[in-house]
Amino acid sequence: MSDSRPSSANAGLSSFGIVLLVATAVGWGINFPVMKHLLTEWPPLSSRGLSAAAGALALAVFALWSGQRLSVPRHLWLRLLLVSILTITSWVACMGLALLWLNAGEAAILTISLPLWAALLAWPILGERLTIKRLFWLSVAMGGIAVLIGGNGIDASLGKWPGIAFVLLGTVCVALGTVLTKHFPLAMPPVSLAAWQLWLGSIPVVIVGLLFERPDVAALSGVGWASLVYMTLIQFCLCYLCWFAALERLPAATASIGSLLVPVVGVLASAAMLHEPLGLREISALVITLGGVGMALRS
């Protein structure tokens, strides 16, 4: 009988995968307060779009350096463009706009709903059956979001509805793009695929931002430049590399549950860096939503 225990090499790979996953979560989580601060100096579409485009170029250079081909098979172009618009254009634009109305911590908590929309969309598109248990836990997750939205009363929440709508629109689009990618796989090297998705998805945001916002480079302070560099090199470049490397070493379920660390880091970082409120409402919403989505992923 063969030994079923993992070898030391595999155990090392798994441990390194966990490290990469945590690094990704920390990098993406810290980006919430970084984005929020940058919006005090630069408009949302320009700051998000330009940093994403620059990150795409950096990923393309890394892909070439690591020996990955950047060529796209002709039959994949339309599929790649559709997925890029859904997963990148919508996310880059919607998250930037949402932070005009929401605290960074509130936006982070609302992004936890992404697996919920993915599960609902996977039902008709992929035929993945929704069990009663999973529906129950997904409804619990929605209850956590309701706590966040209505915790300060309806009147206080009305002013936040544009931001809430933008976050939910962005998460639904990303979920749809993720499900479609699973339905119509994009057979490309991972880093090259990320570079193309970021490039194709960011260009529309850059064009609209430059046409309507006219960002002033002279308006950026030292902290503003540091925020822009962080979004470009850490969020859109290093974190994507760590994410794909983690996916190569960890089961998909582990990576999905581990990604829920992102909003936790986002809420804590926003409280520490921007002195945003971190009271009973925020903690309750975070715990209920995380718990519901986490149990739904495991059921």
Describe this structure in words.
This protein is an all-alpha fold and 299 residues long. The protein has one domain (16-298). The protein is 78% helix and 0% strand. It contains 13 helices and no strands. The chain has helices at residues 8-38, 44-65, 77-98, 104-110, 114-126, 132-150, 154-158, 161-183, 190-212, 222-249, 252-258, 261-274, 280-298. Helix 1 (8-38) crosses helix 12, helix 2 (44-65) crosses helix 10 (222-249) and helix 3 (77-98) packs antiparallel against helix 8 (161-183). The longest helix is centred in the first third of the chain and has 31 residues, at 8-38. The chain is globular, with a radius of gyration of 19 Å.
List the helices and strands and how they pair.
Elements: H1 8-38, H2 44-65, H3 77-98, H4 104-110, H5 114-126, H6 132-150, H7 154-158, H8 161-183, H9 190-212, H10 222-249, H11 252-258, H12 261-274, H13 280-298
